[in-house]
Design a protein that fits this description.
CATH architecture of the largest domain: 3-Layer(aba) Sandwich
Distance between the termini: 43 Å
Shape: elongated
Radius of gyration: 20 Å
Number of helices: 9
Length: about 250
Amino acid sequence: MADYIEGKRPVIEAFRTGVPMRRILMGDYMKRDPMIEDIMRKAKRNGVKVIQVPRAELDEKSARGSHQGVMAEAAPFNYAGIGKVIDDANKYAEEHDGRALVVLCDHLTDAGNLGAISRSCEAVGASGLVIPNKRSARVEASTYKSSAGAITHVPVAQVSNIVQAIQRLQEEGFWVCAATEHTDDVVWDANLKGKIAIVLGNEHDGVSRLVLERCDFFAKLPLEGEVASLNVAQAATAVMYEWLRQNR
């Protein structure tokens, strides 16, 4: 199913954050205003075709009814294979004193969280992200926005089975750490040196039982306040930077 970005300002923002686009659909009734002129300039600069369509077509394709006469059809994201992520990680380890990081997301549901996690991955030098190909958030327009464009620089692999992906990483010499609150082991005391894969759980249920059983060890962030937990993207950033600190 096509991923559409609706509205003048969201389309301009999509250009700014580097969302790849197939085409712009613009109502044949639209009058030129400064924002429409900006969209036309950006489309021409990026080689994106602008197609004039009747209001009925925009209404039919709109999911929220907020198209304002303009919709952009995002191009499909180019996912990597798990083999590329592993190869990149092994190459990175050879060049960085044996350290490498891969992050696995166990059925995240929010595409914005996925983008925020990819931004942190890019910041710490992680070699890739691994996500399930079903019942999981995927890379869409909101992912580009929350990643501030970083998603274009981080290989993302879709896999049919997270447990099998973990097994492949373990065979390649990775130690796999599940970030979970259901442990007494604090991340500061965990050994995150070397080739590490960090598993992040679903926003509501955390890391699933089958995935936990396959991980080598667990770690949690200490919480001194009254809030029970952090957002998964915030927690991911803290754990990734602890990996970077230990390997500095």
